[in-house]
Structures are given as structure tokens and as C-alpha cells.
Amino acid sequence: MNDSVARIARASERRFGSAVAVPEGTSGLEVLAAMLEHRSQRRFTTRAVSDELLQLLFACAMSAPSKSDLQQADIIQVRDAALRERIAALLPDNPWVAAAPVLLVFCGNNRRTRQVAQWRGKTFANDHLDAFMNAAVDAGIVLMNFITAAEAVGLGCCPISSIRNHAQTVSDLLELPEWVFPLAGMCVGYPESAGAITPRLPLDVTIHTDRFSDAGVEAKVDAYDRRRHALLPYAKQRGVGRFGEAAFYGWSEDKARQYARPQRAGFGEFIRRKRFGLD
Question: Is the full-model pTM beyond 0.85?
Fold first, then answer.
């Protein structure tokens, strides 16, 4: 069997609980195998990532699709040690923010679009929720493009959504102007170990044909909980003081507990302060 085909079978079995078939004659199998083998990395060696390599990865990231060619994503590399320390102090549950060789912050940027309108004497007539969504989606696609490129050259990455827990503070530290907002941080470096493939929900839960359906989803999630627990059990339970110790602690219990308390309730207010209209 072709090595890439075998890798795809192993990775998809681990990821989704069943191996996906590879049609005969399919090209690009090495790339597909690497995508299926993706794993987040939180521990890195001390090996530095060169500026030249980062520039190459930035170019790959910014080659991502962009809504209407508006190009509404920016990346900030946090190189100043004091600035990195202040950001890391906001995220004590994420020690890799301080330890990773590279820290990036991916931003949505609707500012340039408005500037272009002003420079060319046109009215910006789309000051509503879609302006924010366009910039956020562009930044998210750029973020994933960066991860794909980084993993291709042997680097590991860990996105940091908890940057948004402190959106205003991070925005102030990075001097983000109106209509520019932090989407996520990113730790980057050479992985200390291979890491593990995180099992995901089976494809028959997340892939639909013609119409959305969640028929039988509760049983499928329960089965996923048990498959995932067998492969990659949680090291500890959330909110034991509030919810107690569960006899069985799976993905659905973890996520239910995670979202049983408010998170980022002020993010909408922050985005409005950035002067986005969200109607």
C-alpha cells in the first residue's frame, strides 16, 4: 500500500472512528495525509524560527482566499520581550504563550476597506454585521493557511482563542486602531514531541447532504464521547466544585461545563467600540 494512503487510513480512523477511502489515482496524497495528521502543539524546543522562514510562511498565509479580494486580515508578530510578557500574564492557563519561540496575533481588519473608500471619495455603505463577519472570516482563513504552511516545514502551532478574553487589553497593547480586532493568538515553534491526533465527531454528524439533519445526534455524540475517552481521556474535570466529579467524563460533559458559565460576554461591546455596526 502507498505510504500516504496508509497514513490517511490510520489518521482518519483515529480522527473520525473510521477510515476514509482514497479514490484510485488521487493526487496530492502527501498533503492530504499531513492535513489529517494535524495536531496542535503546546510544547516546543528552544530552536529558533528564522525570520526568513516566517516571511515565507506569512506569504503562504496571505495567499488564502479573501472575500471579494478585500484582504481584511493582518498578522502581528510579538517580538518585544516586555510586550510578550504582558500578553502572557493575561493568559496564565496557557503557559506556552510565554514559552513558544514565536507569538503571533491574527487580526481582522475592516479599516483598510473604509480607508480606500475615503481615499477614492466613495461612501462606505455597508456598516453592518457583515462587515465584521467578512474581516473575521478572512482572518480565520489566513490563520489556517499559516498552520498548513507551518506544519509543512516541520513547525507546530497552537491557536490561542483566549486572546479574546482580554480583547480590549490586547488591542491596547498592540495599538490596534478602530475597525481592527484580535481574532486569535498563535504559538509557533519546533515541536518537542510528535503530539497526538485529537479525535473528532464522526463525519455523519458534521457532513450533510441537501438539508441539515441532526437525527440521532445524541446517540452519536455519546458514542463519540466513549471512543474519544478510550483514545485521549481528559486529564482533569472542569468545575468539580460546582458540578462534582462525574463517573464518566467525556467531550460533551466537558463542553457543557465549559459553556455553563458566561465567557466573553463583553466582546460585542468591544467590537462596537471598534465602531463596527452589528445590526
Answer: yes
